[in-house]
Write a structure and sequence with these properties.
- The chain has 71 residues and is mainly beta.
- It contains 1 helix and 4 strands.
- Strands 1-2 form a two-stranded antiparallel ribbon.
- Strand 1 and strand 2 form a beta hairpin.
- The longest helix has 7 residues.
- 18% of the residues are buried.
- The model has no long low-confidence stretch (mean pLDDT 86).
- The structure holds zinc ion (ZN).
- Zinc ion binds next to strand 4 and helix 1.
Length: 71
């Protein structure tokens, strides 16, 4: 996928769909982010959204990296 990242606005060739804007006619316009922004902002790829997604870009559910478990 080549185009512009929706976050950093840079032309990229590593874009991932992370959401879509519902459109009245064309069936929606996808929102893309580059791999760097996906990683930096913990964006959830559209392919991993729940089926009932409304297309709003989502943040990946926090996978806590802390190893402290309060023991
Ligand atoms: Zn970007």
């Amino acid at each position: 996928m080549t185009g512009r990242c929706g976050w950093c606005r840079e032309p990229r060739n590593d874009l991932v769909a992370v959401g879509f804007h519902p459109a009245t006619s064309a069936g929606g316009v996808s929102v893309y982010a580059c791999a760097g922004c996906v990683a930096a902002r913990q964006l959830l790829p559209l392919a991993e959204h729940p089926v009932e997604t409304d297309g709003t870009p989502r943040i990946r559910p926090s996978t806590t990296t802390t190893t402290r478990t309060g023991q």
